[in-house]
Design a protein that fits this description.
Number of strands: 16
Order of helices and strands: EEHHEEEHEEEEEEEEEEE
Shape: elongated
Number of helices: 3
Strand content: 25-35%
Radius of gyration: 27 Å
Structural class: alpha+beta
Length: 261
């Protein structure tokens, strides 16, 4: 039998619980032609680790040693893995069933889709959710985060960009996509604030070399004043890597930068 100290043990004493119960609401951008906003929730919850569960089982079964409980948990895990590896489905007590399922699409009528493991909860397990109370529910506003603006030619992110050269912006939610989206260079005042006069903005023309949620790569527009101070204005309806658009346009203004000849 496997011991608690075995590297292959089901129990990892280094684990620690993470998370707290709350719900973050996100505006649904997939509902079209609707006069009212709708929201979906993402739940953060307290996570009980293997060690937490082992301790609780030891309290429930005081006449059985912790080592034996650990061995049973390890054996149960091994058997379930073995059943799934053989292509079968495995019942997990009265809680539900683990099973092999297909995922994704294939490009032919005889194609073989990728496989994954799924779990379907039984009514007994689903009923447990009826006793849960949401203690906090708050709206999570969509946003674009800019972590770094770099002059590609100089490989520098010092707040100075070379006129007409390539610029890399790194962060999250950056992909430029959808109606009225784009990137503009807007002049700033002495305090680094962007002008709201869009007539003075210079749009980034042409295609992006990179246009992903984590990185933009493009050429700085012509016509920017040497030694001028600007900021980038990013507008997008991006939904991550999805090809669908948000109903609302997200705008982000970066920190100011200087342009050199």
């Amino acid at each position: 039998m496997k011991s608690l100290e075995n590297d292959n043990s089901f129990i990892d004493l280094r684990e620690s619980a993470q998370g707290r119960v709350s719900v973050k609401l996100h505006a649904s951008n997939l509902v079209k032609d609707s006069d009212s906003e709708q929201y979906y929730g993402k739940v953060a919850r307290v996570t009980y680790t293997n060690q937490n569960i082992l301790d609780m089982m030891a309290d429930e079964l005081p006449d059985i040693s912790v080592g034996k409980i650990t061995d049973v948990m390890t054996a149960y895990t091994t058997i379930i893995q073995r059943i799934l590896a053989s292509g079968g489905a495995a019942r997990f007590g009265n809680l539900g069933t683990f099973y092999i399922a297909a995922k994704g699409l294939t490009d032919s009528q005889t194609g073989k889709p990728a496989l994954t493991v799924r779990f379907t909860a039984d009514e007994m397990l689903l009923n447990a959710a009826q006793n849960v109370t949401i203690m906090e529910s708050s709206l999570s506003e969509p946003k674009v985060t800019v972590d770094r603006i770099a002059d590609v030619v100089r490989n520098a992110s010092d707040g100075t960009l070379t006129g007409g050269s390539s610029v890399a912006i790194e962060g999250s939610g950056l992909r430029i996509f959808g109606q009225d989206s784009g990137v503009w260079c807007a002049p700033t005042d002495g305090d680094g604030n962007c002008t709201t006069d869009t007539a003075q903005w210079k749009e980034v023309d042409g295609s992006f070399f990179y246009n992903t949620p984590s990185k933009l790569l493009f050429t700085l527009p012509q016509g920017l004043a040497p030694d001028g101070s600007y900021c980038f204005v990013l507008r997008t309806r991006c939904l991550g890597y999805s090809k669908r658009e948000r109903k609302s346009l997200i705008q982000t203004v970066t920190q100011s930068f200087k342009v050199t000849a």
